[in-house]
Amino acid sequence: MLKNYRIVVAVVVCVIFEICSGSLPSNINKCKISDHVCIAKSINDVLRLYPKGDPSFGFVDISEIKRPKIILSEDKNRQKSSVGFNLIVENAVLNGLENAKVTSVSGFDPNISKITVTADIMNLRLTGDYTVNGNILLLQLKGKGKGEIKSKRTTCKVTVDVRVEIRNGKNYLAINRIKMDIQPHDLHVRLDNLFDGNKELTESLNETINKNWRDFWMELRDLANDALADLSRGILESAFNRLSYDDFYVN
Fold it and tell me: In order along the chain (251 residues), what is the average pLDDT of each group of 10 residues?
């Protein structure tokens, strides 16, 4: 009786390990370690073939990423600030990551500690219900309503500091830190209902922001990079927790 019980337990444990681990689909080529050209191509194949994600290897749907709240604030520790810039986007929806095309990668080496991935992203778009209060481009912005920020082309460089953890006899990646560097090649901003719906001020401020979008982005860049780094962490951790680093490569 005890022997049969042990067999059942062993089978259950094996099934759990199988469910909790994953492997790359057969239509995604595995590469030799440090073959960064091959790795970039395989990442692009994943983006092209699985824009809606695939839970079997922990890849989430990146075609429409929804978050209850995204905060771009110079002081997240204070609920209200009389200076600086504070933008909150609730019911946020980010579209366009599925259009990313990886142009270069580095760091996928035997002693992995830092990964860098650079990609071009077409038609990136963030929408949601915004609340803004603060100063940017020497302008005072205050309002609440529907908002949109979009770019026809964006270059994104992601640097991920990682460590290797051994689980169930395999090597898995864990994230220490993510740094994001986003460089839009164009930018269009639309904030409705500024200053309690003052139409003239709303149109004038939107026009000024879009005419000076480069300066607007320079002031917003660090806040946006931090916010998108947080978002990217969740996407990467889902895959890293499911897919062992050993399974990235050919034997």
Answer: 41 36 80 94 94 88 94 63 75 96 94 95 98 87 95 98 93 95 97 92 94 93 93 92 87 69
**CB-CB contact of 216 with 136 (8 Å):** yes
- How many CB atoms sit inside 10 A of residue 123's CB? 13
Query: What count of residues does the chain have?
Result: 251
Domain 30-248, what fold? Answer: Bactericidal permeability-increasing protein; domain 1 (3.15.10)
- What distance in Å separates the CA atoms of residue 28 and residue 15, rounded to the nearest whole number? 24
> Would the pTM count as exceeding 0.90?
no
DSSP state of 134: E
CA terminus-to-terminus distance, the chain: 41
Cα gap 122→51, rounded to integer Å: 14
CA 121 to chain centre: 12
Cα–Cα nearest to 60, from 17, 102, 94, 105 = 94
